[in-house]
Amino acid sequence: MRKTAVGVFVVASLSFAVGALAADRPDWAFPVTDKAPPATLPDDGKPKSAPGSDRSYTRAQIEDLYNPPDWYPGIHPAMPWANPRKFTDEDVYGLVAYILAENQIIEKDAVRDAKSLLQVKMPNRDNFIIKFPDKI
Question: Which of the two residues, 129 and 89, has the higher pLDDT score?
Fold first, then answer.
């Protein structure tokens, strides 16, 4: 009896899975990649503004992913420094050397300074892909 119940359960589960795979996939769940992307508007060089903001930016400045525009700077001012210049250069180099040593990129007894830090060969250096090379 128990084997029969398990067999019926397995057959029902498989038939449900096959039926679900055979059903049409809804368009909203599976994006269509053969459609052309929307055309971007050309940059006319004229500054654009947002409602309630005293700032204005060109389209190139708006679309700059590395330096997004701050339309409302008064709402979120820059983060204050709790202890400015708390760490010396030696402290920073020591921290970087510790992190690199813990990740087995450099030897644990390696001493790092401004010149020797530039000599470190990062493991993924050949696989780095620049997403927007025209922005460099």
Answer: 89
